[in-house]
């Protein structure tokens, strides 16, 4: 679906030097980025502000022309075949609107039908589906300028899907939304990916989006890809430790010397123990058995490293 | 379709629409008064009588009014670029120029064209014109070619915005300047200004030369008679040049992404 090889993009930045002179310097926004995304994948593209996410997205959608490197999306060259590509992909910018401010939502959808030349019946079916799943009916007749952000985002996503794109690119789709709106949107996108097989590529700062939606994570910083792989693998790679939390019936001073445990911490006067263990040394089941052999266990939980912790560690490392 | 929707949106702000129309009519009236006051002092302007100048003024008004209608949101291009909304246009399977043109159809701008039409009707009906089929045809064609020329000037001038984002004054100067210029016989203006605005920016072909052709007058500046009939050709050339410049500018934008 997407093939990117050695993608590079520079910007020339002017800065004032003296009253009339200006100096120009080159800033590399994206450097030697390569990846492939197969049809049906859902990929999270994350990185700090200014890491090069948006620049990459703009090159994938044909808005910007790459300085060098190769890009193919749906088998097309985005820079040269912008319009053909636009008919086959959907794009949602969280901070920008592609709806018409003064028009009721329903009329914006009608206009998009004309722009994308979608057959009437297909359009109606697609719209009916979105109206139902995203619960758009109460505000279809409301002018877009009067919609709440959550309502508008649901409208934006619908707008991007009416021409049945094979690929949906979302640039910070949940920014500014309240928890319920976020959750509803995520549910819808997850369904879309699984049921329709629509490929998803999304950038976000909200790591819950990634946890809920993406099986694969790409981390970019300073224009280069620092990590790329299935979420679980990346998690094991950067933080191989998990924590077993055991609550005991009676306090025990410490639970030292358990095989596979790299660090142990007791709290609540010895009633609760945090045991960090490595997966390659032992399994949770074995460890639980060991603990149960030494004390009366009341309750037990295995804690995975939090996703923001994983991503923070990934940001921290530099390639090479 | 889009246009119909836009019109409905405008009519939904009824009071502001009415005020806009009133404002347009007042501006128009002031311009007319300026010309009539001028002729209260002098009997001829650049070698032309009052009604002849009114014909030029009318052609220019109709063309300029219609071109404002056609160019839509183009005069707000710098805002599109700065806010990033231009990227939204690039996301769609259509050219950027047509999208900007239909993005906003200001119905109130029709006011200028309509008053222009009334002035044209009055001036032509009170003059002694030797009507032939080509002349009648030219009267109908001139607002169209004039609109095309003005629209080309808008497009070309606005293309500069891609390099200088804060340059909205430049397109305004060029377009409103041309609007003024074409309202009077070019003989009024002198030297390099005339050459620039009449032929480089082909303002002379909006109203001056077509008026000469309709009135059957030779050009006081000595251009051969067939030049007066050249406007359609000039319009085609202008549109081609403007389209080319626009594409070049958009390519620059996608290359720099300012």
How is this fold's topology laid out?
The complex is a heterodimer of chains A (about 325) and B (about 260).
Chain A: E1 2-16, E2 22-37, E3 42-46, H1 53-60, E4 68-73, H2 82-86, E5 89-93, H3 105-116, H4 120-134, H5 149-161, E6 167-171, H6 179-196, E7 199-203, H7 207-213, E8 216-221, E9 224-230, H8 231-238, E10 241-248, E11 261-267, E12 272-278, H9 284-294, E13 297-303, H10 307-316
Parallel strand pairs in A: 3-7, 3-8, 5-6, 6-7
Antiparallel strand pairs in A: 1-2, 1-4, 8-9, 10-12, 10-13, 11-12
Chain B: H1 2-11, H2 14-41, H3 50-71, H4 77-83, H5 85-90, H6 96-103, H7 110-125, H8 133-159, H9 169-182, H10 191-200, H11 208-215, H12 231-256
Subcellular location (chain A): Cell membrane
GO molecular function (chain A): ATP binding; ATP hydrolysis activity
Membrane topology (chain A): Peripheral membrane protein
CATH topology of the largest domain in chain A: Rossmann fold
Relevant CATH superfamily of the largest domain in chain A: P-loop containing nucleotide triphosphate hydrolases
**Counted beta strands of chain B:** 0
Global structural class of chain B? mainly alpha
Shape of chain A: globular
Largest sheet of chain A: 6 strands, mixed
Helix content of chain A: 25-40%
Overall, the morphology of chain B is globular
Largest sheet: number of strands, sense, barrel closure of chain B: none
Regarding CATH, which class of the largest domain in chain A? Alpha Beta
Name the biggest interface: A-B, 30 and 22 residues
- Proportion of residues in β-strands of chain B: under 5%
Low-confidence residue ranges of chain B:
none
Structural class of chain A: alpha/beta
The arrangement of helices and strands of chain A along the chain is EEEHEHEHHHEHEHEEHEEEHEH
Arithmetic mean of pLDDT of chain B:
83
Q: Give the termini separation of chain A.
A: 28 Å
GO molecular function (chain A): ATP binding; ATP hydrolysis activity
GO biological process, one term (chain A): response to antibiotic
Protein name (chain A): ABC transporter ATP-binding protein
Membrane topology (chain A): Peripheral membrane protein
């Amino acid at each position: 679906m997407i093939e990117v090889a050695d993608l590079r993009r520079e910007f020339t930045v002017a800065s004032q030097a003296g009253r009339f002179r200006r100096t120009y310097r080159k800033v590399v926004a994206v450097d030697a980025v390569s990846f492939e995304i197969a049809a049906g994948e859902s990929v999270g593209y994350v990185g700090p502000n200014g890491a090069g996410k948006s620049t990459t997205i703009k090159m994938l959608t044909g808005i910007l022309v790459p300085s060098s490197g190769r890009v193919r999306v749906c088998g097309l060259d985005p820079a040269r075949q912008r319009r053909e590509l636009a008919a086959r992909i959907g794009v949602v910018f969280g901070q920008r609107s592609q709806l018409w401010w003064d028009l009721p939502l329903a009329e914006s959808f009608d206009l998009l039908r004309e722009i994308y030349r979608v057959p009437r019946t297909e359009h109606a079916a697609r719209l009916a589906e979105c109206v139902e799943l995203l619960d758009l009916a109460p505000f279809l007749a409301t002018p877009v300028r009067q919609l709440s952000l959550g309502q508008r985002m649901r409208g934006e996503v619908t707008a991007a899907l009416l021409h049945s794109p094979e690929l949906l690119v979302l640039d910070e789709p949940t920014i500014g939304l309240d928890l319920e709106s976020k959750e509803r949107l995520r549910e819808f996108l997850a369904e879309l990916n699984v049921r329709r097989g629509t490929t998803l590529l999304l950038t976000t700062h909200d790591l819950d989006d990634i946890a809920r939606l993406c099986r694969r994570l790409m981390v970019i910083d300073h224009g280069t890809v620092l990590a790329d792989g299935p979420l679980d693998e990346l998690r094991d790679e950067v933080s191989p430790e998990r924590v077993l939390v055991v609550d005991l019936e009676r306090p025990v001073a410490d639970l030292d010397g358990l095989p596979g445990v790299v660090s142990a911490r007791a709290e609540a006067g010895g009633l609760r123990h945090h045991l960090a263990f490595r997966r390659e040394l032992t399994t949770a089941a074995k460890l639980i058995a060991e603990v149960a052999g030494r004390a009366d266990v009341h309750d037990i939980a295995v804690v995975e490293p939090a996703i923001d912790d994983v991503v923070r560690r990934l940001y921290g490392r530099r390639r090479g | 379709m889009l246009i119909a929707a836009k019109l409905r949106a405008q009519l939904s702000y009824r009071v502001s629409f009415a005020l806009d129309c009133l404002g347009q009519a007042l501006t128009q009236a002031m311009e007319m008064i300026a010309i009539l006051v001028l002729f209260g002092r002098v009997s001829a302007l650049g070698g032309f009588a009052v009604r002849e100048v009114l014909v030029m003024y009318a052609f220019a008004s109709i063309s300029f009014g219609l071109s404002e209608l056609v160019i839509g949101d183009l005069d707000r291009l710098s805002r599109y670029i700065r806010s990033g909304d231009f990227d939204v246009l690039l996301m769609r399977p259509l050219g950027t120029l047509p999208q900007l043109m239909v993005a906003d159809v200001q119905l109130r701008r029709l006011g200028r064209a309509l008053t222009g039409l009334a002035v044209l009707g009055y001036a032509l009906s009170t003059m002694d014109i030797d009507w032939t089929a080509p002349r009648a045809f030219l009267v109908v064609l001139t607002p169209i070619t004039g609109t095309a020329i003005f629209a080309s000037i808008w497009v070309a001038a606005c293309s500069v915005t891609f390099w200088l984002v804060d340059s909205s004054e430049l397109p305004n100067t060029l377009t409103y300047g041309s609007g003024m210029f074409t309202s009077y016989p070019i003989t009024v203006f002198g030297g390099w200004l005339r050459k620039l605005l009449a032929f480089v920016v082909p303002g002379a072909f909006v109203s001056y030369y077509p008026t000469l052709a309709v009135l059957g007058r030779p050009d006081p500046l000595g251009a051969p008679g067939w030049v007066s009939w050249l406007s359609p050709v000039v319009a085609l050339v202008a549109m081609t040049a403007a389209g080319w410049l626009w594409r070049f500018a958009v390519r620059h934008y996608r290359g720099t992404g300012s």
